[in-house]
Write a structure and sequence with these properties.
Radius of gyration: 19 Å
Number of domains: 2
Number of strands: 11
Number of helices: 11
CATH topology of the largest domain: D-Maltodextrin-Binding Protein, domain 2
CATH architecture of the largest domain: 3-Layer(aba) Sandwich
Structural class: alpha/beta
Helix content: 40-55%
Oligomer: single chain
């Protein structure tokens, strides 16, 4: 099952990115120092947390895989450069981008006005819902997220994420703690040290699948639906235009839909988790 999944994804990416490399390679590189550096070095540096399945995560072979990883491979293939995935905690991704440590951030990152004041976003390349993961015992009592707005309730969210912003804006009375990686929040929830975690729905559903006997539950309906995009440095219209053209090409030839189906609709990839 794992082998078939990897072979399907790999074959599709090789064929489609080869096509895009031929059709889109004529785009001008003028006035883009970042793009000139990428082409001169032959390396595209993409920042990811590697802890956001199915967007990006480590598999049993200690490789970073997922929706973002496959999309990044397609970009690098179309640009005819090597891909270098740079693992950085989610809360430090944008500072790393601004500091020039990576060329793009692709890590299930929502496009927001606050972030758009610091960097430029290309996309969205997909959408993601947000909700709260808690225990079945608590869900029996709390039916709505607003009922969590109590100083006795302990909630965690990823540092510098829209989940953290949501809690601060909508649940100001809760005891909020931020985490660097999602697995930290899951562990705390399983040990009873917190009452809920706010995160993207795919990550919450995966947590329930991986801990079927833990009595975890998701508060429904979703509390937000957010556009997910690629973050790049400001003031680089040529690079932004190139990425928009690639994303448009990926959509037209069906690559993006294939990746959405592989990582969000199917569950074969769960078997690749450590």
């Amino acid at each position: 099952m794992i082998t078939n999944l990897l072979q399907r994804s790999g074959a599709l990416l090789r064929a489609l990115t080869a096509f895009l490399a031929l059709t889109l390679s004529s785009i001008s590189l003028a006035s883009s120092p970042l793009l000139e550096r990428i082409m001169a070095s032959g390396v595209l540096r993409v920042g990811m947390s590697a802890d956001q399945p199915p967007f990006n995560f480590y598999n049993r072979a200690n490789q970073v895989v997922g929706f973002d990883s496959d999309l990044a491979k397609a970009l690098a293939g179309a640009m005819q450069v090597k891909l270098k995935i740079v693992e950085i905690p989610f809360g430090d991704l944008l500072p790393a981008l601004i500091a020039g440590q990576v060329d793009i951030v692709m890590s299930g990152m929502s496009i927001t006005p606050e972030r758009s004041l610091q960097v430029h976003f290309v996309g969205p390349y997909t959408m993601s819902g947000k909700s709260m993961l808690t225990t079945s015992r608590i869900k029996e009592v709390v039916k709505d997220p607003t009922q969590f707005n109590d100083s006795d309730i302990r909630v965690v969210a990823l540092k510098n994420s829209t989940s953290e912003m949501f809690v601060r804006r909508n649940l100001p009375e809760v005891s909020l703690h931020t985490i660097a990686y999602y697995h930290e929040g899951i562990e705390q929830l399983l040990r009873g040290k917190i009452d809920a975690m706010v995160a993207d729905v795919p990550i919450l559903k995966l947590s329930m699948l991986r801990h079927p006997g833990a009595g975890l539950a998701i508060i429904e309906p979703v509390i937000a639906v957010e556009p997910i995009g690629m973050a790049i440095p400001e003031n680089d219209p040529q690079f932004a235009n190139l990425l928009r053209n690639y994303l448009s090409g990926f959509e037209k030839i069906g690559l993006t839909n294939q990746l959405r189906n592989t990582w969000f609709e199917q569950d074969d990839w769960i078997a690749t988790l450590p």
